[in-house]
Each structure stands twice: as structure tokens, then as C-alpha cells.
Amino acid sequence: MTFMMPRTLTSNTELAAPLNRIADSLRNASLPFYKSSALVIFTEDCTGRPQKKAGEEGIVSRVSITELDRLRSALPSGESSSKEPWRTKAVIAGQEREVLAISYPLSQALLVLTDPAPVGGSMDGREAYRLLNYLWRLTARRIQEKVSDAPPSYLLESRAASAERIRVTAELIDQHSTTLETLLAALRSASMDDAAARASVTDLAVKALVDLRTLSDRTSDLVEEPVTTAFGRLREGLRPLMHFSNIDIQVIEPPANGRALPGEVAHAARAVVRGLVLAIAEQPDVRRVRAQWDCDGENLLINVRDDGRGELSADAPNIARLQQRVQAVDGRMSVDVMPGWGADISVVLPLDPPAVPTGDVAAWGLASRELEVLQLLTAGQRNRSIASALHISENTVKFHIRNLFRKLDVRSRTEAIALAHSAGIR
């Protein structure tokens, strides 16, 4: 059967949505030929929000990273596996359901449809799946592009979301570990004579503890990358340029025992190196580029140099955009251009977020939620984005902003942002 794209899908403008709405866009685009109760995207490219969901609230509000990771692990491997629909039964949102799953090998992203069914009519099931797979690949590539080209505000929000998830998960682990360990102690008590019941419930509690610890480890893995893994992904990203360019791109591996990188730092580092290599490749007579990562325990140290004429402009728009990306994660970049000898660029990216400012900020008497709103406000976020990041309503955001204006003695967002900048909030 010849594969024909419907005219309404030949343009991918429907999938040009912001990251927080991309699951809705994909589901709307696929509904004419593939129905489902919910659509879930699991992508580790987005460290702050690895799940993107649309559909029934009872599913999208309860689906967990652990469930999606188990499903992805069971998925047949290999590029050819995505050419045929893989349907199975899996526990999603705490209940066994019929699912259709498709991976995206380039980023290990996963698409899951619950209760899937091709829409009847002139299109058979195989063609419906091919259309779905086509849109999924467009979406997965779009997610990669959006993360690579993310503005500074997105990176700041990503770091805040990652840190918040770690904090909440740690609290849950402490709470449930204590509960389950107490349950185990009770069930192992000699005063209980029903041995069979005690053994059965003990096994259940042990399994729950293991699952909880696994969830903790998995959450940490999602917001951090081993430095060698992060660098390996950079090397793979540069491979096409190394293959098709006449430039010899040399990559110097970081120490294998270097400290793990926060997800947003790893993404920023790869984007900066790729951007620098592309900017250098546009210069005449460049034959060799060397990219090196190192880690001093507190910072990721990046060095990129070339052997060209030294005509790279530190004021060029593409270099300015990279400077913004570096500053978004509280880093710094210096460009040393040597006429006749090439350019030497150094980048330092801190691995820890900046400390919460003190001094004037403490004197304002802000509540923790008000400080979070101020930080996102300073990062350029609008009310809707702040509400989404903090999982509160826009009316609540407006309430906090009114309190901020009163406590900071300002009359506008611009004044509040300027005062926050002067106090060291970025």
C-alpha cells in the first residue's frame, strides 16, 4: 500500500506548540485516524518535566515515571521495531490497560497511547499506525530542537522544576520508608501467630520498599547525567558535522570519575559547544577544532579552540545567543580571538544553583512561595507560565504578585524585576 500523507498533515505547524502543550497538539493531530483515552510522552530531554500528557484526567494525573520506564524497558529494541505497532498490556496510572508504545531511538523518548484504536473508514490499521509514527517522529525531533534552542527563561524554569521534584520526592521517601519499616517491624513481631499472613504481608511491604527506593534512584537519574554520558551525547551530536565537514573535530573526553551534571547544565553545555563549532565552521581556513570538557568538582569547564585566521567575532549575534544561554545557568564565557592564530573560547558552568540571596531579600520578609514567584518573574515568565511551573492558579499568582509589590514597595513588574536584579536574584 502506498503511504500518503493527508493534506492537513503535510505541514507540521500543529506540532509547533510550546513544550507544555505539545502532547495536546500531537493528540489532536492524530485523533482523526487513531483514538486513545490518553497520550503520554516520556522524554528525558526535558529534565524538569519528563512527562507530557493529554487525555483523560484519571490517567494523565496518575501515570508515573516508574510505569513508563518499565514499559520502555520492555519495548523491542532496534530501529525496525518502530515500523510495526507494538501493543501490549501494561500498568499505566495504577491499572492494567491496553497500550500502544513507540520509541524514538535518537533520544530514547517514548510515546504511549492507552486504549488505542485505529479510526475506521478509508484507512486501514497499518496506514493509521504509519501516520501516527510519522507524527511522533516529528514531535520527538521538535522536542529535541526546542530544548536545544531553549531561551534562558526555560533553562531557569527547568532547574527550578528539577530541584522541586527532588525535594518533594525526598520528603515522600522519608515518609513512606518510615511507614513501611514500621509495618515490617510489626509484622515480624513474635506476638503475631498467623505466620502465613505475616509472611505474605512482609513480602508485599519489602517489594513496596524496593519500588520506592527504585523511584528515588530513577528520579535522581532523570535530573542528573554522568559527565561521560553527557559528553557521549555531545559527541554523537557532532558526528554528522564531523562526517560531512572538511574540518577535523577533535573531542577530548572528560575524566570518567567527574561529578554528575544537572540535566539543564548538560543540555546547556552540549548546545553551547554545538553552537561554537557551527560558528567556527563558518570562518575561512579552519582545518581543526578541538572541544574539551573537564570538571573541577564545582564547575563544568569547557574549552573550544580552532586553528583559523582568528576572525571569529565575539560580538556576533550567534555568539551573543550562546552568551545568554551560559548566563541562564549562572555561567560565564570568554572569547579570546588571536589574529592569525584562531580563537580560544572558555566556558565555566556551575554545577550547583546559585545560593538564595540574602541581605535585602531577607529584609523583604518574603514567604517561600513569594520568593519562587519573584524568581520566575525575574526570569521573564508571565503569569500563566508561573502558574504552570508552580502548579497554582493564575489568580493565586496575581495574589502573590500583589503581595510582592507591597513588600518590595514597587508599583510595576519592571520595578520588581529591577529591584530583584539589584539584590542578586537571576
Description:
It is built from 14 helices and 14 strands. The protein has about 425 residues and is of the alpha+beta class. It has four domains: about 5-150, Beta-Lactamase; about 150-220; about 225-350, Histidine kinase-like ATPase, C-terminal domain (Heat Shock Protein 90), CATH 3.30.565; about 360-420, Winged helix-like DNA-binding domain superfamily/Winged helix DNA-binding domain (Arc Repressor Mutant, subunit A).
Structure summarized in a few sentences:
The protein contains 14 helices and 14 strands. The protein is an alpha+beta fold and 426 residues long.
Which features characterize this protein?
single chain; alpha+beta; Heat Shock Protein 90; five-stranded antiparallel sheet; 14 strands; about 50% helix; globular; WH-like_DNA-bd_sf; transcription regulation; DNA-binding
Query: Biggest sheet, strands in spatial order?
Result: 3-2-6-5-4
| Residue windows where pLDDT falls under 50 for at least 5 positions | 1-13
Cα radius of gyration in angstroms: 25 Å
Write down the overall mean pLDDT. Answer: 78
Order of helices and strands: HEEEHHEEEEHHHEHEEHEEHEEHHHHH
Task: Provide the number of structural domains.
Answer: 4
Summarize the biggest pleated sheet.
5 strands, antiparallel
Helix run count:
14
CATH architecture of the largest domain: 2-Layer Sandwich
| Top-tier CATH class of the largest domain | Alpha Beta
GO molecular function, one term: DNA binding
Organism: Arthrobacter cavernae
Keywords: DNA-binding, Transcription, Transcription regulation
Domain HTH luxR-type: 359-424
